[in-house]
Amino acid sequence: MISVTEQKPLEEILQSLDKCQAVYLVGCGTCTTMLHTGGKAEVLEMKDKLEAAGKKIAGWMVIPTACDEVSKYALQENDQEIEAADCLLVMSCAYGVQNVSQWTDKPALPAVNTLFIGAEYTPGEFSEVCRQCGDCVLAWTGGICPVTACAKGLLNGPCGGTNEGKCEVDPEKDCAWTLIYNRLEKQGRLDLFEKEQAPKNYQAVVRPGKITVK
Q: Is the entire prediction scored with pTM above 0.90?
């Protein structure tokens, strides 16, 4: 599993850095490195872009995993350079930004957008696998999630636009509900295809989510 991200437009990044003349860059050695949105190469590329825009780079580092406690110690080891910065530009997922924020008094600003939690099925291609909605219907859909696999997120499908097993939104994509039908038929559970699902309960997970395991 991986946090799938994309870099923000440079214009947006510069807007967020408007009051920051000296910037410290933070990359992540896991997810954004894999996706080429915040690894060493991208951090150095961002350094060049910001310097060309008139910013001073106080320093940079790539934390092995920006979303865990190692961030605390990495920041402590580079505290002098960070102290010379007006803010930190964090090239990790949104959780990494939040994690870095709690270990420094400097503003920690995001350089990427977090899109979804995904899996790598073929090299370099990532697909969303779970929206973490807290109201799972996989028991009734053959283990195929209609919330993420269907372009319309239909809980009762297919829609009228499916054509020869393909999605009308993206003809290159298999219709999720055709996949569900075929899976249930193979399992001898096709009766579940006629089960009407209630509207998605978007309050199943109270935000921010929290759970205590005893």
A: no
